[in-house]
Design goal:
By secondary structure, the chain is an all-alpha fold. Helix content is about 65%, strand content about 5%. The chain is built from five helices and two strands, in the order E-E-H-H-H-H-H. It comes from Actinoallomurus vinaceus.
C-alpha cells in the first residue's frame, strides 16, 4: 500500500528505503536510546530533580530528540526526512556542546546526562549515532 506525499502516491522502494538494511538497525538503536534516555530522565526528574536540574532537563531534552529521530527515521516522505535530519543535527550539536562543557566545567554537571563526556556513560554511542544517522539519511535522501 503506497503512502501519499503531497497528494501523490509514493513508490514502494522510495517509501521503504530508510527502513531497510542498515536503516532497521539504526532505527532500533535510536529506539533503545529513546527508551533509555526517557526512563533515565523520568526517574531523575521524579526522584532527584533538586540535585542537578540542568543535567536532568538535558537528559529529558535528549530523550525527546531520540524519540523524534526514531519516529522520523521510520517514516517516509520529505517532511519526515527533513525532521530526521534536523533532529540528528541537533543531537550531534548537543552531544558536542554538552560533552565539551561537561569536561571543561565539571561543577556545572554534578550528575551525568546522556550526552556528558560525549556519551561516555553509553560507550560513546550518543556521539557516533547522529553521524551514522546523518550519513544514512544522506544515502537515502528523497529524490
Amino acid at each position: 500500500m503506497a503512502e501519499r506525499e503531497g497528494g501523490r502516491p509514493v513508490a514502494g522502494p522510495e517509501r521503504t528505503a530508510r527502513r531497510s538494511g542498515p536503516g532497521r538497525v539504526l532505527i532500533a538503536v535510536y529506539g533503545v536510546f529513546a527508551l533509555a534516555a526517557t526512563s533515565r530522565a523520568g526517574v531523575q526528574i521524579a526522584t532527584r530533580f533538586h540535585e542537578a536540574p540542568v543535567a536532568y532537563l538535558l537528559s529529558a531534552f535528549a530523550a525527546v530528540v531520540y524519540i523524534l529521530a526514531t519516529v522520523t527515521l521510520a517514516r517516509s516522505g520529505r517532511t519526515s526526512y527533513r525532521v530526521a535530519v534536523t533532529s540528528c543535527t541537533i543531537e550531534l550539536i548537543g552531544v558536542l556542546a554538552v560533552g565539551t562543557y561537561s569536561l571543561t566545567d565539571r561543577a556545572a554537571f554534578p550528575d551525568a546526562t546522556v550526552w556528558s563526556g560525549y556519551g561516555s556513560g553509553y560507550g560513546f554511542v550518543p556521539l557516533v549515532l547522529p553521524v551514522l544517522g546523518l550519513l544514512w539519511l544522506r544515502r537515502t535522501a528523497p529524490r
